[in-house]
Amino acid sequence: MSLSRKYDIVIWGASSFTGARLVEYLALNAPTDARIAIGGRNKTKLAEVQSRLAAKHVSAADALKAMDILVGDSTDAACMHEIALQTRVVASTVGPYTRFGTELVRACVEAKTDYCDITGEMPWVREMHCELNDLAVENNVHVASFCGFDCIPADLGCMMLAQYAHEELHEPLLHVKGSIVGIRGGVSGGTLATLRDQLHTEKKMIFKSLFSSSGSTEGSANKRFATRGLIHFDKTLQRWQTFWIMSMINSQTANWAGQVLNYGPGFEYSESMSARSLLHAVAIAVGLFYGVLLMFFSVTRHALYALKIIPRPGEGPSEKFTERGFFSLNLEASTENHVFYGKVAGSSDPGYGETIKYLGESALCLAFDRDETFRPGVYPPSVVMGSALLRRLRNKGCQFEVSRKPIAALESTKKWL
């Protein structure tokens, strides 16, 4: 990748709800000499984001005004190639990626430009991996998807535990059990639009997950965590556990990384959500089931839009609400002879405050930290950036902790979504 390119980072989709937050984050956190441009399909909206943020952050106004505006159509292959040739890294917030991400990823791989995004669309990422991984390796290009709340906590959390198992216990990591023990956050219309597309492409897997156990019963490397039902009692946390909507994508991503990075034979990650009581656990599972049904059908989905129960694309939680958000993910890991623990936590809305931090630091990591330890190809962030990204996030206040003793769950029950 040429160091003489015009930009270090291009933020693609900068006029979207999430994209504007990323522009703001990089204006406040990128090195002063970083060359950043913002891009999307509507020049007027991009200029409005730029001027609004410059008025809000006077100290960063010069940096914001210095960001060039690039205009293009995400479905136009020639246009995406022209944009990719101008930058060292692209950070994309334009979803659903199945519809609007393919040409940009292809262009980046062909132009030898690194890339990161916040998709949670595993079928699309697998498709990009199958189509482009060999060329990405040949061109020494790093394509890191899943750089948001799905799936940084699970992905880097498992990598952290695998490193501990190998370096301190001298044993392979066999299993990690994750539990969301506390969370508060909002959702944007763009995220719901992506979820809608995923419901159509992954409906069989989603409904199977709602009614299946959270641990495998055959071929498991560690029977300690096998045969856990959808709703079960966790003896370590002393809490009832229930279905967690993001467990599907998080487990697939962590397991994929575990295979590539060789955490251990038959490594498996599973994930659930803590509840205050058995009744609460049942209520969460039933609520998610009906929520999925309502989002699946266009008639009920449009009714939810009309009643303003859910936000439309381009809408999302307020800045104040984002700042009041948080999440806490407790991890229980096992090797052949040891059980140990981990925790990943964030102090803002996981879907926006933490996700923007994760994506922003991923873009900066690709632009300024890249060395021989980075792995080229189309992979999860732990595979592409590894410990370099983990260090960056820890330096920004993200909690990634390992302990030989159980880590207590949140005591307060009022801090629930």
From TrEMBL:
One of its GO terms (cellular component) is lipid droplet. The chain crosses the membrane at residues 278-299. The keyword Transmembrane applies. InterPro entries: NAD(P)-bd_dom_sf, Saccharopine_DH-like_oxidrdct, Sacchrp_dh_NADP-bd. Residues 9-141 form the Saccharopine dehydrogenase NADP binding domain. Keywords: Membrane, Transmembrane, Transmembrane helix. One of its GO terms (biological process) is glycolipid biosynthetic process. Pfam families: Sacchrp_dh_NADP. The keyword Protein biosynthesis does not apply. It comes from the Eukaryota. PANTHER family: SACCHAROPINE DEHYDROGENASE-LIKE OXIDOREDUCTASE. Belongs to the saccharopine dehydrogenase family. This is Saccharopine dehydrogenase NADP binding domain-containing protein. The lineage of its organism: Eukaryota, Fungi, Fungi incertae sedis, Zoopagomycota, Kickxellomycotina.
